[in-house]
């Protein structure tokens, strides 16, 4: 246990911070802990959680993807046209949405690898293109999303089972231990476990970490650098599209909002840092970034139960973010040889 | 192509940006000739007006370039600009402009402290400070545009004309000359390049890297604040989110001008050309009444396309 903490200090600190924030939130909550509150909280988490996951992969190899918010918006706009009709049509719509995001991520990867541009500036430009496409698809906010789908995916497992008649409408005994788990949480962590954890163990996945630690060494060891880079940006596009898909289902609308897209991108960077992933690359992971997103959200939950002037909310959010990232700086004052601070 | 290869690599982006600016002007003129039969784009008065609007972006880009040269980035420009404008209009009187600029100075000092002493990545620290500034301004104004009016001095700087040339353009040129001098002729300027190339080596050779990086952020804060004061003068008042549309174009202008996003390389004249290019691109697109969606797509494509023409980064194996 102590060894694990030593190896994952950033993750452990983030976990402790989140638990402290979230448990005291429930202790202070006037109605106490309930499934309804949990469902509501997790609903607010999903979109930023997915975008934070998306941001993590390029950050691990030492780049940044400034287009994740835009890809999410593009995916949400595509989804707002396609998620209605027969179950088959809806399933096709979901796959098409994810495909659009993944393809855009692939385009990012190709530009970064074969165009040999800096990721931060290449994705800044492709982000503008993604927003432009989203505006073409949805000039005005709106959309048509299947009501059952919206209800089933934004509530607890019980409601999901009831809506689609699984396990005797959710009354089956084998389903009993799970009925109160919010479905959004299952989607978020399920996607992380099913996609990220297996991917991390492949050669391509390990190469992403290797590039972030020492690119020259990774190249000299004959690791597939180009493939890993393209895969990283493609995966970022995929996760961002997951976020967009969920956002469209949750709100039943697509909205090509430039400001919102930018806010999601910037918050995703904040979530990645809070989760303990180094912006220089090489250490960290996708699960940690979900934790970072949870911390960001947990802070905003407090505004509802504490009687804080709404006008002070942005200020408090900013101060918490600034304090959290500055806390990492304690390391700076313990360094014996100052040369270690510089690269 | 042989002529292109003979030019120094550092000058190539500047020449390409210049050529592209001419190309945009020609396309715009061809469009106006074919639709209305006039050539507004080639009239000096129109160009002056566009450059007057562009001077706000130009000031932001000048400050941004100082920071990017050190290998950092300043994401706090939007609300530094807005806060400076709001503080300047709120104070009013003869102290309006110094008050606005002092906001930029404070923001720069805090950014510099966070990035160079605490060593928090600039990307996240400046972003956090941007959020804090937004919070302060929302708490102060209640989320509405403040009622305060810009002072006559601010109106003069932003709107008046001297010898037929907008005063704002003179301000931009003055700042440009100052930055060019700083970068080319002073120890501070050379230290910026040194830190951007290899901070470790710069520190070992006796450059006070903390002070220099803080200086770069102070420069960026002051430039953004000056842009805010001028913009408040131009629109006669400060309003919420007035700086939001300046951050990404400023970064784009710096990079299109040939400055390396990871620091260490770039010339100020390139940033100047980058700003002119973006301003003219915007103005041609609005003459063509391009919808916002296509505008964003063209904008993104132009940046990617130009960077691909500039010559791509070096391979890891080289």
Automatic annotation (TrEMBL), chain A:
InterPro entries: ABC_transp_permease. The chain crosses the membrane at residues 66-83, 89-113, 120-137, 181-199, 230-249, 261-280, 311-333. CDD domains: TM_PBP1_transp_AraH_like (cd06579). Pfam families: BPD_transp_2. It is a multi-pass membrane protein. One of its GO terms (molecular function) is transmembrane transporter activity. GO terms for cellular component: plasma membrane. Keywords: Cell inner membrane, Cell membrane, Membrane, Transmembrane, Transmembrane helix, Transport. It comes from the Bacteria. It is found in: Cell membrane. The keyword Transmembrane applies. This is ABC transporter permease. It comes from Pseudooceanicola antarcticus. The lineage of its organism: Bacteria, Pseudomonadati, Pseudomonadota, Alphaproteobacteria, Rhodobacterales.
TrEMBL record, chain B:
The keyword Cytoplasm does not apply. PANTHER family: ABC TRANSPORTER PERMEASE PROTEIN YPHD-RELATED, ABC TRANSPORTER PERMEASE PROTEIN YPHD-RELATED-RELATED. One of its GO terms (cellular component) is plasma membrane. The chain crosses the membrane at residues 12-33, 53-73, 85-110, 162-184, 211-234, 246-262, 268-285, 297-313. It holds the Pfam family BPD_transp_2. The keyword Transmembrane helix applies. InterPro entries: ABC_transp_permease. This is ABC transporter permease. GO terms for molecular function: transmembrane transporter activity. It is found in: Cell membrane. It comes from the Bacteria. Keywords: Cell inner membrane, Cell membrane, Membrane, Transmembrane, Transmembrane helix, Transport. Its main location: membrane. It is a multi-pass membrane protein.
């Amino acid at each position: 246990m102590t060894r694990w903490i030593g190896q994952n200090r950033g993750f452990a600190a983030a976990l402790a911070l989140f638990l402290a924030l979230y448990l005291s939130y429930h202790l202070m909550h006037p109605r106490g802990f309930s499934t309804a509150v949990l469902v509501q909280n997790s609903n607010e988490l999903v979109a930023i959680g997915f975008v934070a996951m998306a941001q993590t992969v390029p950050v691990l190899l030492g780049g940044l993807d400034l287009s994740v918010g835009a890809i999410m918006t593009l995916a949400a706009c595509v989804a707002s046209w396609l998620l209605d009709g027969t179950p088959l049509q809806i399933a096709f719509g979901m796959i098409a949405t994810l495909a659009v995001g993944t393809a855009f991520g692939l385009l990012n990867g190709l530009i970064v690898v074969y165009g040999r541009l800096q990721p931060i500036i290449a994705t800044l430009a492709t982000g503008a293109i993604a927003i432009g496409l989203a505006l073409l698809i949805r000039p005005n906010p709106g959309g048509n999303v299947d009501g059952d789908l919206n209800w089933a995916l934004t509530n607890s497992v019980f409601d999901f089972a009831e809506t689609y008649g699984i396990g005797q409408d959710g009354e089956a005994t084998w389903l009993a231990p799970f009925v109160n788990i919010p479905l959004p949480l299952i989607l978020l962590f399920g996607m992380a476990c099913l996609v990220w954890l297996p991917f991390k163990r492949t050669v391509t996945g390990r190469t992403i970490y290797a590039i972030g630690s020492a690119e020259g060494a990774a190249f000299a060891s004959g690791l597939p650098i180009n493939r890993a880079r393209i895969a990283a940006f493609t995966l970022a596009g995929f996760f961002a599209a997951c976020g967009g898909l969920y956002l469209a289902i949750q709100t039943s609308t697509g909205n090509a909002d430039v400001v919102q897209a930018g806010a999601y991108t910037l918050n995703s960077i904040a979530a990645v840092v809070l989760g303990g992933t180094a912006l220089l690359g090489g250490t960290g992971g996708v699960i940690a970034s979900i934790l970072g997103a949870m911390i960001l959200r947990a802070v905003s939950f407090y505004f509802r139960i504490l009687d804080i002037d709404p006008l002070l909310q942005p200020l408090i959010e900013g101060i918490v973010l600034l304090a959290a990232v500055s806390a990492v700086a304690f390391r700076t004052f313990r360094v014996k040889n100052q040369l270690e601070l510089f690269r | 192509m042989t002529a292109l290869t003979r030019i120094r690599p550092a000058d190539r982006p500047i020449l390409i940006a210049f050529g592209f600016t001419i190309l945009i002007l020609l396309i715009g003129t061809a469009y106006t000739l074919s639709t209305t039969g006039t050539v507004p784009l080639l009239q000096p008065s129109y160009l002056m007006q566009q450059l007057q609007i562009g001077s706000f972006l130009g000031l932001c880009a000048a400050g941004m370039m100082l920071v990017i040269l050190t290998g950092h980035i300043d994401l706090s420009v939007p609300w530094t600009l807005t806060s400076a404008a709001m503080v300047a209009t709120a104070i009013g009187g003869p102290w309006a402009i110094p008050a606005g600029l002092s906001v930029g100075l404070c923001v720069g000092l805090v950014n510099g402290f966070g990035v160079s002493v605490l060593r928090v990545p600039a990307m996240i620290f400046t972003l956090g400070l941007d959020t804090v500034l937004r919070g302060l301004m929302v708490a102060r104004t209640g989320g509405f545009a403040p009622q305060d009016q810009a002072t006559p001095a601010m109106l003069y700087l932003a709107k008046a004309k001297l010898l037929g040339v907008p005063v704002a353009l003179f301000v931009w040129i003055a700042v440009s000359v100052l930055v060019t001098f700083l970068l080319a002729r002073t120890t501070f300027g050379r230290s910026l390049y040194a830190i951007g190339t290899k901070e470790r080596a710069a520190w070992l050779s006796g450059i006070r890297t903390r002070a220099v990086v803080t200086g770069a952020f102070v420069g960026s804060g002051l430039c953004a604040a000056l842009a805010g004061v001028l913009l408040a003068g131009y629109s006669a008042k400060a309003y919420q989110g007035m700086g939001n549309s300046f951050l990404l174009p400023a970064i784009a202008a710096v990079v299109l001008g040939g400055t390396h996003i990871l620091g260490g390389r770039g010339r100020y004249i390139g940033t100047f050309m980058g700003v002119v290019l973006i301003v003219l691109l915007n103005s041609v697109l609005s003459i063509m009444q391009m919808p916002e969606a296509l505008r964003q797509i063209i904008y993104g494509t132009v940046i990617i396309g130009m960077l691909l023409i500039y010559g791509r980064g070096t391979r890891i194996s080289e």
